[in-house]
Amino acid sequence: MAIQASAAVTAGDTNALLRLWRNKEARAVIIQILTLAILFAFFAYIIDNAIQNLARLGKTFSFSFLEQPASYDINQHLISYTSQDTHLRAMTVGILHTVLVAVCGIVLATAMGYILGVLRLSKNWLINRIVYCFIEFTRNVPVLLHILLVYGIIVNVLPVPRQALDWSKTAFLTNRGVFIPKPVFEDAFVWTLVAFFAAVAVVWAYRRWARKVQEETGKIYPVLWPGLAIIVLLPTLAFWVSGSPLSWEVPALKGFNFQGGMVMRPEFLALWLALSYYTSAFIAEIVRAGILSVAWGQTEASYAIGLRPNRTLQLIIIPQALRVIVPPLTSQFLNITKNSSLAIAIGYMDIVATIGGISLMQTGKEMESMIIVLSIYLAFSLIISAFMNWYNKKIKLVER
Amino acid sequence: MDDTAAATQKYPPGKHPSLPPPGLSTGPLLWIKENLFGSVTNAVLTVLAAWLLWVTIPPLLQWAFLDAAFTGESRKDCQAQSPGACWAFIQNRFELFVYGFYPVTERWRPNLAAVLLVVALLPVLWDNVPQRAKLLIFTCAYPFVAGWLLIGGLGLKPVTTDQFGGFLLTLVIGVTGISFSLPLGVLLALGRQSKMPVLRTLSIAFIEFIRGVPLITLLFVASAMLSYFLPPGTDFNLLVRVLIMVTLFASGYMAEVVRGGLQAIPKGQYEAAQSMGIGYWKMMRLVVLPQALKISIPGIVNTFISLYKDTTLVIIIGLLDPLGIGKASLADAKWQGLSTEVYIFVAVFFFISCFGMSRYALYLERKLDTGYRR
Question: Labelling B348: which of A90, A185, A314, B246 has CA 20 to 30 A away?
């Protein structure tokens, strides 16, 4: 007995590690400690390399270059910017450009995608096939190619400013961009804005009241048309009463290009249109899947309790379809934002082209610039996911 | 007289010959009525669609085929022949589009690699291929065989990777990314599902980082920043850096697709496997992953397709894929202004490959649907 026990103890001593390894919890701890150790060693190694490399090149790691003058031009800017401004200012212009094209793209892509998705479900064979071909062609060709193709068409096919395609001499379509009249606001225009916001508030309150009445008594008051009427009529009235305080600055041909008015440059236009129709093909499929996911029985049940087709769509189908549509729609919105970085291929000055492109080249601050660019995109992604998660929670059906 | 006689003729009950159906209730006319002119909206839509097709398709065909020039040595030759598309440019630069600057004498090697790619794909795409087990071993070895063939060494003349270009480059990046991102993605998905907090946190951080930034910024990191993290004095190939980044990028998305599949597997499957006393890896390999991967096939193929499309982004850091070759060739004064032709040519190439992949995914989905559905 005693001999056996001591033998077991000595064997246990030599195999202590093995025994530890065979214990599930202990093994988990060992694996995690090892992983952390390897990870720390790896990071220590590459950071050490980076320090040595920076020292060898005589560079330092600091973000102070953001305060230096950028000394490059950006052909269009939403906030005032000259080449004397700092890199930080250039970066802000870039961020605004990314936000602009992403927001415009999301709006247009959602609208187009919704229409295409509904048309794809149409009983009309011809429409159905055309939309199918459009969606398949668009989805299976790289987005960069779409951007370059649209840009090429705008620059090469549209006429030069002298032979611009015009729309009753106020808006012009040329290969230098689309020129539209620019509104010039006078001070009294404030009243129109005030009237607009007041109208929105009134409609919002009316809608709450109508809902409450419907829940309590079952009586339905129309909301959509009266609401629209109030929102349109009230500001219009204020506009006339305050003496039409708005004039238009019409673009005019001077020399080789148009002056005045507002311009959408070819770079913005190409990026916006290409991103929108590319993403709309994906959104169309999402919308289609969402609508198909609502069982036909739901429609029949709704008809059975006497709802008319448009009320059925509004109250039964869409709320249930949205539950399926919103999560994949979120990733499409994220995709538009991320794909807007392809702007650099056609020279639209977004965040990658400003701080990650020209600023990086001029200052040689590769690491700092790339860290800034990566963190900005991460922040965008987090904001969009947070918003869409909130929205998703709001429209989620409460099930039994 | 005859008509009325026939109409009034008496038949015994049940003996009346069948009458033809009313004109609009059968055949093509019914189809047209139901599918094209079912309601007023439908009729309007049909007319609009027909008008749209009439306005766009004939001029497009005219431009692309009837008025197109297929031979010539410069854009002027094309314009002299006809006003339409100038495909002579594509014809002229075709080899460049396919091989890039790969040495002419060594071009049998990419060709052989392409043939072997088909052989390697056979057992993956087709179940009934003879000797499937042996071929699968070859499939696993294929990326390395192809790498040796293309880069050279060990008896073959070395070719530097900056000579890779055109469709060859697209395939190299696509195939490498696809074959390495799937295993890596599976590992990341398992890490994300793991009970060990450190592994789980690391996997989540990696996946969310990858999915939060655009590929183009990662490529910039690869081209501008990665060399800082290497020991001083070393520098490795731009193409390899790009391959690593593309693989990591795709694996982040792959991990999420596989995670969806893993989450769809009922807990009972894990418990059943554990109750039989098999370990973690064996349980994953034999019970969980086969089911999870099967569910996630559509997502996996979609990730492959987007990876394949994303290979075009490498032109931004200066690699010459078909788009890059096209843009570079257009700088030649003889061929200026033909960007539309180039883009359409490349678009058709991508459309054929990506559409093929998505069709194959549909077929696979139907085939693997073993019908265990409630």
Answer: B246
